[in-house]
């Protein structure tokens, strides 16, 4: 497994890469990609760490698992490649942005434009076997991504963490809420959103208000 990340992450993550669990994880992923169709493409597994440097990171959004259908996953949580139909959760994210910050619903579901502005789009598990949701969970990815969240909390200040749904909310224990801003809500998936736990959370305008207050550039959602 080729760990292709922006150099800004190297110093703080090198210790993790050297640990036995990560070496075992790398072997597992290599074998899975050799034996099965897996997503995202190998060169995009660490895309979140390429598109958003540690220096520019201002916002963290945590997802659970990559999309497991063809051409969807591009290594950023909730994001799909240009020209791909928007999955239901992403549709609801864009609908909330429409009402919250009055931005027109976009054609592309590719969230690289967010990442390049300092939004770190991290899935807890970075790979998945085609059409088998959760197939790469509990093989070491969660240990790695928990360490990443904890390290961001330790190394940075004033980051806005957006925790959507029960799974993401559990990550609050890794975050120093005295130093950072934590916003929580239901998940944007239809199951949660249609029961009133997502729409109206105004996380996008709230995030920008916090950034502005900290003298940082707002996100162009």
UniProtKB/TrEMBL annotation:
Signal peptide positions (record): none
Main location (coarse class): cytoplasm
Gene3D superfamilies in UniProt: Uracil-DNA glycosylase-like domain (3.40.470.10)
Name this polypeptide is given: Uracil-DNA glycosylase
Protein keywords: Cytoplasm, DNA damage, DNA repair, Hydrolase
Chain ranges of the Uracil-DNA glycosylase-like domain: 49-211
Keyword Cytoplasm: yes
GO molecular function, one term: uracil DNA N-glycosylase activity
Role played: Excises uracil residues from the DNA which can arise as a result of misincorporation of dUMP residues by DNA polymerase or due to deamination of cytosine.
Coiled coil: none
Matching SMART domains: UDG (SM00986), UreE_C (SM00987)
Family: Belongs to the uracil-DNA glycosylase (UDG) superfamily. UNG family.
Superkingdom, natural source: Bacteria
InterPro entries in UniProt: UDG_fam1, Ura-DNA_Glyclase_AS, Uracil-DNA_glycosylase-like, Uracil-DNA_glycosylase-like_sf
């Amino acid at each position: 497994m080729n760990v292709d990340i922006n150099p800004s992450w190297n110093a703080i993550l090198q210790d993790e890469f050297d640990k036995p669990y990560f070496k075992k994880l790398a072997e597992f992923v290599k074998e899975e990609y050799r034996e099965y169709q897996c997503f995202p493409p190998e060169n995009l597994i660490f895309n979140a760490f390429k598109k958003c440097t540690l220096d520019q990171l201002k916002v963290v959004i945590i997802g659970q698992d990559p999309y497991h259908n063809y051409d969807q996953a591009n290594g950023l949580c909730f994001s799909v490649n240009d020209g791909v139909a928007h999955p239901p959760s992403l549709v609801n994210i864009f609908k909330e942005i429409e009402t919250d910050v009055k931005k027109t619903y976009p054609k592309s579901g590719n969230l690289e434009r967010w990442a390049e502005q300092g939004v770190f789009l991290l899935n807890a598990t970075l790979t998945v076997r085609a059409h088998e949701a959760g197939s790469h969970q509990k093989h070491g990815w969660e240990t790695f991504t928990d360490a990443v969240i904890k390290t961001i909390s330790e190394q940075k200040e004033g980051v806005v963490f957006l925790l959507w749904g029960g799974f993401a909310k559990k990550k609050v224990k890794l975050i120093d809420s005295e130093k950072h801003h934590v916003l929580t809500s239901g998940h944007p998936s239809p199951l949660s959103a249609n029961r009133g736990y997502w729409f109206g959370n105004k996380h996008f305008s709230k995030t920008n208000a916090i950034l502005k207050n900290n003298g940082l550039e707002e996100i162009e959602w």
